[in-house]
Amino acid sequence: MAEHKEPEIIIDGQRLTEGEAMSVRCAIARMIGDFHDQPDALGTDDHGRTMVKLYLQNLRAAESKMRCFQR
Questions:
Q1: C-beta of residue 3 within 8 angstroms of C-beta of residue 71
Q2: How far is CA 47 from CA 22, 40, 56, in A?
Q3: Helix (H) or strand (E) holding 20
C-alpha cells in the first residue's frame, strides 16, 4: 500500500499539523468539486461566473502543488 504524506503548510509562520494539512487539502478538493458542479454558485452574471473560474484556477493550482506529497 502506498504511503501518503500530507503537504507542509505554513500559515503566518506556523506549521499546520498533519491533521490540519489534511483538512485544508480535503477542503480544497471539496471546493473544486462544488464549483465544478455548480458554475453559477456565485451568481449567474458575468462577475459571479468569472469569480468561480478564478477560484477554480487558484484552487487547482494549490491542489497540484499538494499532489507531489502523495506517495
A1: yes
A2: 31, 10, 14
A3: helix 18-37
**Residues 29, 19: Cα–Cα separation, whole Å:** 15
Query: Following DSSP, what letter does each residue of 21-67 receive, concatenated?
Result: HHHHHHHHHHHHHHHHH-TTTT-SSHHHHHHHHHHHHHHHHHHHHHH
Alpha-carbon gap, residue 18 to 8, rounded angstroms:
8
Looking at this protein, which amino acid is placed at residue 19?
Answer: G
pTM for this model (two decimals): 0.81
Judged against a pLDDT cut of 90, whether residue 3 lies above it is answered with: no
**3-class secondary structure, 2:** coil
Residue type, 49: R
